[in-house]
């Protein structure tokens, strides 16, 4: 049995490598997995008591006093937490995790109703409204996260009985929404992809059928407007007709993961087609350079095409995760490296920025600019230990724990390497690299025989070498080597790590006249902490002809190892006073040195200003 | 008795001219007053039944069936509507208005409790929560609008008994919040300025004292967080300590009007000082070129300094009105023309754009950019006939009806002209002008004798003439002429109507690399409807050296008379596809002609794209 969160049995071009079969041994992601194990997951386990997730479920099981705590979707925090520590237990077993899973499983077994229903909010607070407020109840959303937790717990062999709880709830869903007369959807998509995962674990076909039906049910006006409009929940149009990603970004992206999952199992081409159509539109017009999605705080929404403000970017951490889920399924479905390219961009930037270097603080929102002297934001744009709506932290933890499964795929004996980090992959190769700091990736073959090794050539790598010869990607974005390998054979891939400036499309109004600095997979930003005394990040402007100097740093004040980029720039001064509109441009400028740091490492020092996009001088 | 909405008895440098003493006889504002009379106010009167405002108050008086309709502040719609038609009745008496006021007065007299309390939502829906949910109840907010309606009804001599209803409610407020033990504020400031107005009408000192106390009570944590944070309601800091405008823009701006009103009556300099400090900060960093305020949909908030996105501008119509109220009081308090300058900018742009040319549709939000093919906005960015939360339409109507009172002031026999439009002012002068289409303003003296005529010289008028001699504004922004006038004497003021390009301050990220086009007091925009076939507003870019050609138009497809501005420009093309970030700028351009229309006249034809800020070629 494969041990990956996604293990499609049907139309996949490639198949995932089991999570046990990838070992990440160095680099920023190995560091993050360690911090996740030692700091984030323990913090999350604590929060499951404090935030009410476990106590609520105990109340549903008839134990414990006091009122329901938190949001109606509070159960989902526990499910994501359980999923995170289960994947982490697969990777690096830990008795504390197993103990927590035991306890959680016991609570869930007790809380579940005899008919299979399980949702502490509706059981405790609104038993008369069960399945009656689908537009905002999050009942199926919570169920979906339970299903995913159960899949992980099964792979880890912890949490006794959780799979049975999940199956009983899934069977109940099938009775109500597939074979019963109830037509509906959950206002927050998520259960669709989860049902397919549970189908893959159990082989129970009705779970897949229900997922397909829930996708077909969307956009038919089967549930009410939650008050946020029909686009908010992607219920404005049937899935096959919708042409662009809209509304609540996380909902849209989870829905897409489900759409592709159903395609992968049923072969319904119309699903893959509509999802790819929205993907292309989204990538071209609604994607931040960090890989983030969601341009509006209002409605946590995508926003219009080319509406990509850096300061008010929502770019929710959960949206980055959901986008990785979707792109991974598209990669399996199409074998096209553009999806692995976007996963890389998202992993190293929007997603990696979500968590502090010590693993103890998290961003919900990942803007590309923070001004100084913030007033309106109650948290002054800093990471926080936890949130009243804590969807992000345990979601981050589950992806970090299962990162290994996004590194490579196999197919007919072949191996595709999608993400570069040191480690061993599927018993076939060992990877040595100092990526993303350096572009050299040395692959040593461990499995002899004739098979094809495919190496993703990122679109950003202008000049790429394999074993000292120039290497071009094929139309799918890979460089393929078919050989009769001997154990110990090596291949050296050299990606182009020359720092580069990126210009935004003319239609992106919010960053007109600006450039962003990138190197390899990393987007850079200018943080106040790295600028010379008296030089304000808000005043920086770049000369695109100035050399970009690479400066390795062993430890950036607790943010860890990094590579800074320094350049000659100017500081632009303009006095404040009167209306800020004048019939002549009034700014003057002076020469300064500007220093950039990888975006994912920002906000690990002070609460100073930050910008990804810098005006051209 | 003066007949102006604001008639300060205390520290005013200047005094308002009574609303009956100004007659606007031509130009866009006379047209608007006519449309307001014939279309908007009748529509509003109808809506007072349909939207529930009158029925709710009938229910409070024990008449009528059915549940409470609309928001908890629904009463305020009626009060603003009553105020609007009262001022309009002063200007142009109308029996239908008097009849409506009779009916409204009867309903109010019946709805008011014996102790003076009056609020239909709390009387009908939550009698046990009266004065117990100040953070969001809007009880004092509604009371304030009743007080203002009563002042207007008194001046109009309609709505029998409304003044008495208002006084009884104000006395009740005094009992509860001034002499009683209850300390608090209303989450939505408004009652402060209204109490001062009622004090001016009645001479009842306790109303002024209560207004002063409510201002002192702010920022002391006397009421709970409504869930939107303490900044939202300006309750985060004492009024004298707050350094910048924050939170819900309309609340902040109404509060400021009250702060200056209390200064005008009590002479408490600390109030004027703190209000001016915030005014300077706001003008320099948080004001749109249209005069609008409020940069965020989320929380309807000001946003951070220099956060001024054109597409997501909130710039609520009510904020424009509240800003005019505040600036008018500052003008009276300081005699400085910069406040009249901002009133002019706001009146002709952010405020004037709020209403369609036929007076039957309204903007709640006044953005400076509308993209084509909008998806996320349920109303596609168009004006609407009415709103569930209908604060704006009757608010617009009351300001249009009372516009005459913002035109001029007097002081010791002198006359100050602040806004230019054809008409007669205070029996002292007659004004003839084709403003804002033409810069010539001819003033004919009607009152003989020695007195000073002060003419505001707008900051935008680069070269100004008075009677063919170059004229400079004094430090307060006025050109003053003291003479022994003969009836029939004339003065000719010539303002500079050369079209001009305006550059944003370097720190305004959202419109970097763009310019706006202005002429006289009017900000222009580029609407799709005026561009040549095949030229997309989203693609326009301007050459700042190209001549700006002025093109008078008799009627712009129902939007009325206008002056278009035409210029040679380019259309910038960049293909869509893949990520919108590239290592080289990829845009190409072709020469085109671009045509701009006054911003206030936009959205009177189709739902096409619009931009105020255009990239530099």
Automatic annotation (TrEMBL), chains A, B:
SUPFAM superfamilies according to UniProt: Six-hairpin glycosidases
Highest taxon of source: Bacteria
Domain Non-reducing end beta-L-arabinofuranosidase-like GH127 C-terminal: from-to ranges: 500-615
Domain named Non-reducing end beta-L-arabinofuranosidase-like GH127 catalytic: residues: 21-404
InterPro entries: 6-hairpin_glycosidase_sf, Beta-AFase-like, Beta-AFase-like_GH127_C, Beta-AFase-like_GH127_cat, Beta-AFase-like_GH127_middle
Location of the Non-reducing end beta-L-arabinofuranosidase-like GH127 middle domain: 416-497
GO biological process per UniProt: carbohydrate metabolic process
Protein name as it appears in the record: Glycoside hydrolase family 127 protein
Source organism of this protein record: Nonomuraea maritima
